[in-house]
Amino acid sequence: MQVNQVKTNWAQFIPLVTVFFFWGFVAASNDILIPVFKEAFDLTQGQSQLVSVAFYVAYTVGSIIYMIISYITKGDVINRIGYKNSLALGLIISALGTLLFYPAANSGSFPLMLSGLFTVGLGFSLQQTVANPLAIALGPINTGSQRLTLAGGINNLGTTIGPLIVSFAIFGSASSGATNLDIESVKIPYLILGVAFLLVAIFLKFSSLPDKPEAVVESDDSISNDRGHALKYPQLILGMIAIFVYVGVEVSTASNLPAYMEKDLGFLTKDIAPYISLYWASLMIGRWTGAVEAFTDKMDLQKILRFIAPYLAFGVFLLVNAIAKHDLTPFYVYALIILVLIGADMASKGNPARMLLIFSGLGILALLIGMATTGMTSVYAFTSVGLFCSTLWPCIFTLAVSGLGKNTSQGSSFLIMMIMGGGIVSWLQGVVADETTIHASYIVGVLCFAYLAFYAWKVKGILKDQGISFESKISGGH
User: In 3D, which of 77, 179, 175 has the Cα closest to residue 129?
Assistant: First the structure.
């Protein structure tokens, strides 16, 4: 990265965000596969969440493999083979995973299906390790977190479209009662996805992305604070737990929602896709709101865009669901809930610790309302969790690696490792649901948000002791 770079390099940034789109597409599509597999293979709610476990634990395994290879070869693997080659390799690994869906569907094998998802996640792990710091590096450092938020918004375009396309592919080609045909119909969309992975790998290989961007150098202060290893920084240790529970509550809220809507509210599996789409669209709505500073540093224009961006994203959700011929009437009331997001975003004033505290509190409130109500009120409450999860990744990521200096990339790989929380927490909530009710199991998410609120409070003091404050660093531009 050029430290003196004053503008975002859009020619390089736009090709990069294609991989963010695919991460979202597959992650949200898993929420459609869970109820299908649960019925087809006669699984408990806990067993059905193994879909999330296989996919998200792959991130951790991938990070461990990356660190072992780097240790054995005595050097950073990604720096050696280059950023573009690493991205292409990650996409090829993911493409190989999608190929496993073909024999898995033919043989009706749940373990082979999980192996396919695990392999896709393994490829994503390598892509994430490269793409997150690269998104920050393609422009000025003070808007790095906004670029990461914007990339997350593109990710959630994938999460909004993914459930609708996969649901159409499964239920459009077979009736929901024909279980074997449902499993068979999983083959084609994932084979198409595999081809898309390969095409994007070729596209990125020949794009203008930098193959070896210059390392991010923070400041002289970070050099003087160097502790020799990333794990010697308390903000990172506590931040790793924060990433674990954040991805956990984000994924488990959505992945347990289909079972709640089927079992408690009487929805048919094929009618749930628009609500899963709304949940992931909520993350897109929040991230588009948080990314406005990446486009302009004019405060008056930012204030206008704060209102335009979320409703533009909501319009994308309505458009794709209209194209899919879903009834939009149940979703118009959601426009009012978006006002809460806008208010919270303005109240945070760009301070990542304050934003993390406010949004975690709203996440707790949304889950408690969902647990205390029934019917569509509870569904809207649970889906609004997506709004309040939307900006937490860049907040936690920024706070956790602040002050790490030359240990930043090492700290980043530890954070990527903790994405496995998406699988573990989803499985845990599934087990709690089997023992109690799915409605009551959302207490797991409340506990996750409670830790995030604690981290927001605790890390502020930790960073202050190291001479780091975000009051002046980000308040002008976030």
Answer: 77
In a 3-state reduction of DSSP, which class is residue 255? Answer: helix
Helices in 329-401 by DSSP H: which ranges? Answer: 334-348, 352-372, 375-383, 385-389, 392-401
Is the Cβ–Cβ distance between 141 and 408 less than 8 Å? no
Rounded distance between C-alpha atoms, residue 300 and residue 204, angstroms: 36
Q: What is the pTM of this model?
A: 0.82
Closest among 276, 472, 446 to 371, alpha carbons compared: 446
Structure tokens belonging to residue 142: 């003070």
CA distance 359 to 361: 5
In order along its 478 residues, the chain shows pLDDT tens digits of 334 455 667 788 888 888 998 888 888 888 888 888 888 888 888 898 899 899 989 999 998 998 888 888 877 777 788 888 999 999 999 999 999 999 998 888 999 999 999 999 999 998 888 887 788 778 766 666 677 778 888 888 888 888 888 888 877 643 444 444 457 778 888 888 899 999 999 988 888 888 776 544 444 444 445 666 778 899 999 999 999 999 999 999 999 999 999 989 999 888 888 999 899 999 999 988 887 776 777 788 888 988 999 999 999 999 988 988 888 999 999 999 999 999 998 888 778 899 999 999 999 999 999 999 999 999 999 999 999 999 898 889 888 988 887 777 678 788 889 999 999 999 999 999 999 999 999 999 999 999 999 999 999 999 888 888 776 433 222 2
Q: Give the chain's end-to-end CA distance (angstroms, integer).
A: 21
Distance (Å, whole) CA 215 – CA 421:
29
Task: Give yes or no for a contact between 430 and 51, defined as CB atoms under 8 angstroms apart.
Answer: no
SS3 annotation, 39-61: HHCCCCHHHHCHHHHHHHHHHHH
Nearest to 84 by CA among 215, 210, 213, 214: 210
Cβ atoms 130, 286 nearer than 8 A: no
182 closest CA partner among 198, 201, 194, 166: 166
How many other CB atoms are there within 10 angstroms of residue 201's CB atom?
A: 22
Orientation of helix 375-383 relative to helix 273-290, angle to 10°: 40
The C-alpha atoms of residue 147 and residue 477 are separated, in whole angstroms, by 12
Spatial separation of the C-alpha atoms in residues 51 and 258, rounded to whole Å? 14
- E strand or H helix at 420: none
Say whether 100 sits in a helix, a strand or coil.
coil
Q: Is 441 helix (H, G, I), strand (E, B) or coil?
A: helix
Asked if 393 and 360 touch (Cβ cutoff 8 Å), the reply is no
Q: From residue 433, give the alpha-carbon distance in Å to each of 57, 244, 269, 280.
A: 21, 20, 18, 22
What single-letter amino acid sits at 311? Y
